[in-house]
Amino acid sequence: MKIAQIAPLAESVPPKLYGGTERIVSYLTEELVAQGHDVTLFASGDSVTSAKLVPVTSMALRLNPHVKDPIPHHVILLEEVRRRADEFDALHFHIDLIHMPLVQDFIDRTVTTLHGRLDLPDLVPFYRAFPHHPLVSISDHQRLPMPPVNWAATIYHGLPTDLLRPRLGATEGYLAFLGRISPEKRPDRAIRIAARSGRKLRIAAKIDAVDRLYWESEIAPLVEQYPHVEFIGEINETQKAEFLGKADALLFPIDWPEPFGLVMIEAMACATPVIAFRCGSVPEIIQHGVSGFIVDSEDEAVEALRHLDDVNRAGVRAAFDARFTAQRMAADYVALYQDLRDARTASTQMRALRKEGAELQIV
């Protein structure tokens, strides 16, 4: 199939550091190419891909100090996609909602994966205005706040099987927190849980400008207060395998409706169990007692850490291999693209039959 992948421009594909959506776009694009599809990636010019790259901007917008407003750049992206839309069997958007009015004339060849939270009040009237666009959720829980829309599928994220190697030997006795410093990610919980369990906590996380005050007022003082906490900062993909693989467990103490939680399956790929709070997608991703433990409080998290030896690390990796590989993710999307094409073919045939029947009545 000829497939277009349309990525956000904030980060490159794959991103240099933090960037979950762009990372998934990269894994999907590369796997589709590996499976023999003709793929074109619309993304920033510093992206690296085996697909055909359409470089809409010279570099990722977040890294360009001259960019003050991302909207004009995304409008240019949409114009380039519109101009070339007829070249593709399927156009797969990863840019949330800005493209919706544009694609109405070729909506039967499009699908949009919604990567973010959907419980924001402004989204309800928007999706009511565009109820027919085929949408993909990344967990079933993500769908709950939405009005009636055209859900085409729930497709879980996946990682290349050789991206993060499982570590089945001895660990280094610390707990890991990986991702982003923000109130909803609850690094404060992670610090307290580690302190109560008597384990060291290593935090590898990005601090966005919007969360700088939260870091300075809430989290940095805790890091200084507890000698068991080490803040590392952002890490790249090559550092992630060692960081997660050497940890006793990943702490995922979120306090928001997490749409998916990519770091959970990254830990699973490293054979590292996950201690996750029961929010958002967590019950869909973590198999309690197999790939980690699902908890409802800090007390339960501390207790779960006492039972880490009950979790077989090879079994954690097996749970990843069974459900969260890039091969499975790409196969699910190809099936969806094929459904779009089949529906289009059936619709065309139905219109032809109706036209033929009308002509016979006229005669």
From TrEMBL:
InterPro entries: Glyco_trans_1 (IPR001296), Glyco_trans_4-like_N (IPR028098). The keyword Metal-binding does not apply. The keyword S-adenosyl-L-methionine does not apply. One of its GO terms (molecular function) is glycosyltransferase activity. This is Glycosyl transferase. Residues 18-127 form the Glycosyltransferase subfamily 4-like N-terminal domain. It comes from the Bacteria. Keywords: Transferase. Residues 171-306 form the Glycosyl transferase family domain.
